[in-house]
Amino acid sequence: MTDRAESARASNQLTFGDLTDYPVMAQALDNQWLPPDLAAAQQRPHATKGSTPKAVAAASAELRRSLVNSGTLVINRAYLLNNEALYRNYRPGIEPAEREAFVRLLNDRALVPYLYQERDPGEESAWSKDKQVQQSWRRLLADEAEPACVRFDWDDDTNREETQKVSNYFSTSLSTLRRLKIPQLAKDLGISQERARALREGVLKDIYDWAGEQDPDKDITRNAVYQQFLCRPGSEPYEQLYREGQDVLPAKQLIDLLYSVGVPKASGLIALTPPDSPARSALQELGEAERSPVADPEALGRLLRDVFADALHRAVDGPNSYADLGLCDITALRREEEWRAYIDALNGFVRGGFAHGRVPDSDAFTGATSEIADLHAKMLRKARKIGRSGKGFQREIGMALVLESAGLSLQLAGDGVSLLSGSVQLASAGLGALVVRLVFTDGGSALRSGLGHSVTFPTLRLGSVKRDWEALLGAYGERITEIDALPRRNQADQQIPDAP
After folding, report:
1. Spatial separation of the C-alpha atoms in residues 477 and 114, rounded to whole Å
2. Torsion of CA 419, 422, 423, 424, to 10 degrees
3. Which of 66, 174, 353, 462 could be cross-linked to 26 through a Cys-Cys bond (beta carbons 3.0 to 4.6 Å apart)?
4. d(Cα 272, Cα 317) in Å, to the nearest integer?
5. Hey, which of 77-86, 366-375, 485-494 has the most confident mean pLDDT?
6. Residues paired with residue 462 on neighbouring β-strands, in sequence order
7. Residue 401, CB half-sphere, CA atoms under 13 Å: how many?
8. What span, in angstroms and rounded, lies between the C-alpha atoms of 333 and 323?
9. Contact call for residues 299 and 348 (beta carbons, < 8 A)
10. Mean pLDDT on 99-117
11. In whole angstroms, what is the distance from residue 230 CA to residue 240 CA?
């Protein structure tokens, strides 16, 4: 940008260099992101098109997590118009306090829309399928919100060159998925090495071959990859209906991760991945960069910073750490000293410690991570107090003990005991396993509550499934309600390993 163009830039027209308060972008605010279990449900023949309430709740939880773990959260303007977890905060029907908090986040530059090539946040968007959402957004901008927006550059020609680099990064990096190392791929995706090998030699090889056949003068879009390999034939990507096959969803996770780091990589922002999705390290960029004969030390330092920052955030927070907080609670937390100290420490080490290609030594790593973890714990305690203040959302935690074995399911909760109807009669007299889970559920608002949590204890062995279950039920001695199906739970499960 020329000096003249720079001086003509309005105060709310930012470039990425203007963002200095620990700026991040969050993958989970991409309208295509889904937690693994919800994505798997979209492979079923009769899956619902588009976002489900549970998908909105999961993305809403990630919005809160991202606002807590950033000074500035940069959000692609398209997501503000096509992701319900975002646009529900300014649509009619939202609680006035939540709408006011959303406006405050925009006006305080805690939320900063990223503009791809448009110059105004209210411009017509081809990515929004709901005209009423666009009208609500424009009304918000006209009456209440005056957000600052960020582009690579406000000179259109220069900006076009920079956004072209982002598009080109996705196109050219598709081929690297074919070269991912099997042991690390299996570890990052939580699958066996046999499955990882089948994934790499199957759909990832197909994507590699297909990409090589595309017009080299045109960039490959994520939508094109989706429609060719992931979407159910005849459906559109935004409908979130996926093909059957065990390799479809792992491939989707890698494609989405690769897509999500394009803008952060080009702009210098920190990219946050959701805790229940693959980490940034799953792309194996460090190994690829180290093998390059023309490796840039400064670029290597930035990449190490990005992988470290993502791992750090995943270590200190779970997927629902702040899901019980409303946006009004989040704005209150961001005014507290504990939150500011935590963000300043992140900014000082993650951005300052790696500046100009520097890589901190082991003592600096140890000291900084210890300090950040301590400050995070203090901030989290403050967040819990705010959540219990009575001004925000209140959680109602339920608990149940679930016993499962070979098609048998028994749930012991505060409202009685439920048994899957007819299951004991169909049980085998042979050996079997008894799985015991302690389930915690959140009875609050579906849009703000977490997805719950469960703890699975070491597996017990039954000599006779039928006889031992009859003994269990007989020992209980009270009335048991037989039902057709146990209530579906949606938890993040914590496994306690079996004894060796």
Report:
1. 62
2. 90
3. 66
4. 12
5. 77-86
6. 432
7. 7
8. 14
9. no
10. 97
11. 9
Whether the full predicted model's pTM is greater than 0.85, yes or no, is: no
Strands 453-456, 432-442: pairing is: antiparallel
- The torsion defined by the Cα of 457, 459, 464 and 469, in degrees rounded to 10, comes to 10
Q: What is the dihedral of CA 120, 125, 131, 137, to 10 degrees?
A: -30
Task: Please answer whether residues 372 and 346 qualify as being in contact, where contact means their C-beta atoms are separated by less than 8 angstroms.
Answer: yes
Residues with Cβ within 8 Å of residue 438, at least 6 apart in sequence: 399, 400, 401, 402, 454, 455, 457
What integer best gives the mean pLDDT of the chain?
82
Quick check: 473 and 424 in contact, CB under 8 A?
Answer: yes
Residue 38 CA to its chain's centroid (Å)? 12
Is the four-CA dihedral 84, 85, 86, 91 of positive or negative sign? positive
- Between 459 and 432, the higher pLDDT residue: 432
Quote the pLDDT of residue 294.
46
Cα–Cα distance for residue pair 19/14, rounded to 1 Å: 8
Report the distance separating Cα 455 and Cα 468, nearest Å.
Answer: 23
Q: How many CB atoms lie within 10 A of CB 126?
A: 7
Residue 68 carries which side chain, given as an amino acid letter? Answer: V
Tell me: pLDDT of 430 over 70.
Answer: no
What is the C-alpha to C-alpha distance for residues 142 and 159, in angstroms, rounded to an integer? 26
SS3 427: coil
Give the strands of the sheet with 111-114, arranged side by side.
13-15, 149-151, 111-114, 72-76, 23-26, 270-272
Q: 18 exposed, middle or buried (CB, 10 Å; 0-12, 13-18, 19+)?
A: middle
Is residue 135 pLDDT above 90, yes or no? yes
* Per-residue pLDDT at 396: 46
140 — pLDDT class (breaks 50, 70, 90)? very high
Token pair recorded at residue 391: 């001004």
Q: Which residues pair with 73 in a beta bridge?
A: 24, 111
197-201, 378-382, 422-426: least confidently modelled range: 422-426
For tokens 């900084």, what's the residue? 368
- Residue 263 has what pLDDT? 97
Q: Pick the closest to residue 74 from 134, 122, 115, 123 (CA basis).
A: 115
Tokens standing for 471? Answer: 């003994």
Confidence grade of residue 330 (pLDDT, cut at 50, 70, 90):
very high
User: Containing H/E element for 165?
Assistant: helix 156-173
Provide the token pair at 11: 């105060």
